[in-house]
């Protein structure tokens, strides 16, 4: 065996103090050395395995540090549950904010199988603009004259376009609509009977008559044809998931939202009814806690924050717990975090003490502990138009996830439970379900055709982003793959009573305010009426939305 260089030189080998931990982890003997031949006369020092590892490790750290911002800007919160990194750069005159966020990976099934359900995955996120003038126009309460001006502006555009149409085309258009509907139903029937050849021929004919830029039924036919084609190919689930995983920017969503509230009063009425009911229930409470199941972008709450700021005696402490489904990809909580930042910006402007907690999770897995309920706070539970996405297997009866979620809400003993639903019910049988989908969405697409110009990009976003995934899911999927199972307000009323809720009376003055919103410039055809404690909204005789107020029967 060759003698180490230190033995040759008659010196004692100094132990490495910096690498004891690393050496122990690698199970290396700190006294073990390796002889290196004398490749050069200038080689004066023997290198150990530990020092080689140390050199490479330090080199890696140095390279990695070049990619990170200044460590002086790294802050860790008191609970140790979040790490935020705030570094701003000017790029093309746009301010981009980067944050290092630890997001739960609870929706990643492959990680769950490895037993790391609570694992935190740090990811970089690029924030969008929290708010701008468009946000304020759409989300805050303005004078009636301003809202009326916005509404009449869009109505004026539509009236000009209607005058430019040739009147004698109306009869031909009606015949065309009847033929297209008949083709769609015939194609669905052929698919249900496994007559693929006939179904394929009918699909080709439907494609020739449909148009993504045409009238309401032509645009709907494009989406229905996509669903029928996916069902025929057996790719319904994949097609649906591809649609729901599309990333839509907040700016695009807000543009579509802005057009919606200019064209239709339904969203404005829904938010106004809910927020005024919350204000009435809150009274003079000094602390208010709102649990919003399905908060999404949080567009309901800026106007409430604005109203609380004007409350006599000063605003209360407002805490919002936002719950929503995880977003696809590696940032499941990104949107819900952005919602919190936006609401915080409004609270700061209106000087309302504010706290926000966002949770991205499967709604069926929510428990009371997730809501952080405090006894000294007035509790409100709000869920607008999202409960139909909670699974409801009829075979499970009262133990279905939908009923279990209602039971949890009932157990919170909230002062008020505000519930908004889409008033429609589809059948479990394909042909019957297809006919109901065709009827329901034909009315909605005809409404859009009467209210929004066909060349508006926002209209395409509404149809392709909001409606298309649900339509495709109802047409191309079956059984447990049916993601949305809506019910009528009468069905929900029965379900709520079975969950030990009791309906609360509606303030007539709030109903009158909602009716005034509809009268303030919106086109004829919209209506509001009350039925058995439900505020109903619709278009030309069809009830589209329903909202009600509930509280637990058990005190």
UniProtKB/TrEMBL annotation:
Region (Leucine repeat I (LRI)): 178-238
Keywords for this protein: Transcription, Transcription regulation
Record flagged with keyword Transcription: yes
Residues that span the membrane, as ranges: none
Motif VHIID boundaries: 288-292
Region (VHIID): 257-322
Signal peptide: none
Region (Leucine repeat II (LRII)): 338-370
Family annotation (InterPro entries): TF_GRAS
Stretches the record annotates as SAW: 476-551
PANTHER family recorded: OSJNBA0084A10.13 PROTEIN-RELATED (PTHR31636)
Assigned protein family: Belongs to the GRAS family.
Name under which the protein is recorded: Uncharacterized protein
Species annotation: Rhynchospora pubera
Taxonomic lineage of the native organism: Eukaryota, Viridiplantae, Streptophyta, Embryophyta, Tracheophyta
């Amino acid at each position: 065996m060759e003698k180490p260089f230190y033995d040759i030189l008659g010196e004692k080998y100094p132990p490495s103090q910096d690498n004891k931990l690393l050496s122990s982890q690698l199970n290396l003997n700190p006294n073990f050395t390796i002889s290196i031949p004398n490749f050069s006369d200038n080689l004066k020092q023997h290198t150990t395995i530990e020092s080689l590892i140390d050199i490479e490790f330090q080199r890696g750290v140095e390279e990695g540090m070049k990619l990170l911002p200044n460590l002086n800007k790294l802050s860790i919160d008191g609970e140790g549950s979040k790490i935020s990194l705030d570094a701003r750069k000017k790029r093309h005159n746009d301010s981009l904010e980067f944050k290092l966020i630890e997001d739960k990976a609870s929706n990643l099934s492959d990680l769950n199988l490895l037993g790391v359900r609570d694992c935190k995955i740090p990811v970089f996120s690029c924030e969008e603009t929290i708010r701008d003038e468009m946000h304020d126009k759409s989300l805050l309460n303005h004078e009636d004259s301003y809202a009326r001006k916005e509404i009449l502006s869009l109505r004026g555009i539509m009236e000009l376009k209607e005058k430019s149409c040739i009147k004698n085309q109306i009869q031909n258009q009606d015949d065309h609509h009847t033929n297209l509907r008949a083709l769609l139903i015939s194609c669905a029937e052929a698919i249900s009977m496994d007559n693929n050849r006939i179904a394929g021929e009918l699909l080709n004919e439907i494609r020739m008559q449909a148009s993504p830029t045409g009238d309401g039924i032509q645009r709907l036919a494009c989406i229905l044809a996509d669903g029928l084609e996916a069902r025929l190919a057996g790719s319904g689930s994949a097609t649906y998931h591809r649609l729901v995983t599309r990333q839509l920017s907040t700016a695009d969503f807000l543009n579509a939202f802005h057009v919606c509230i200019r064209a239709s009063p339904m969203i404005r009425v829904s938010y106004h009814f809910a927020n005024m009911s919350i204000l009435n229930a809150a009274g003079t409470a000094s602390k208010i806690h709102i649990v919003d199941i399905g908060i999404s972008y949080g567009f309901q709450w800026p106007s409430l924050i604005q109203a609380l700021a004007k409350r006599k005696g000063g605003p209360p402490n407002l805490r919002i717990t936002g719950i929503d489904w995880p977003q696809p990809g590696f940032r499941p909580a990104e949107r819900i975090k952005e919602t919190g930042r936006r609401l915080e910006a409004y609270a700061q402007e209106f000087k309302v003490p504010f706290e926000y907690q966002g949770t991205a999770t499967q709604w069926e897995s929510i428990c009371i502990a997730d809501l952080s309920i405090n006894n000294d706070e007035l509790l409100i539970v709000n869920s607008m138009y999202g409960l139909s996405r909670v699974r409801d297997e009829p075979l499970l009866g009262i133990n279905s996830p939908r009923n279990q979620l209602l039971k949890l809400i009932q157990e919170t003993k909230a002062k008020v439970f505000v519930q908004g639903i889409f008033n429609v019910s589809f059948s479990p049988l394909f042909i019957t379900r297809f006919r109901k989908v065709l009827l329901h969405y034909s009315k909605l697409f005809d409404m859009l055709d009467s209210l929004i110009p066909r060349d508006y990009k926002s209209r395409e976003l509404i149809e392709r982003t909001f409606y298309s995934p649900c339509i495709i899911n109802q047409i191309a999927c079956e059984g447990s793959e049916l993601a949305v199972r809506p019910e009528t307000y009468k069905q929900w009323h029965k379900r709520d009573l079975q969950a030990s809720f009791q309906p609360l009376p509606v303030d007539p003055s709030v109903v009158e305010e909602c009716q005034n919103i509809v009268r303030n410039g919106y086109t004829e055809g919209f209506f509001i009426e009350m039925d058995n404690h439900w505020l109903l909204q619709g278009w030309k005789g069809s009830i589209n939305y329903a909202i009600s107020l509930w509280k637990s029967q058990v005190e």
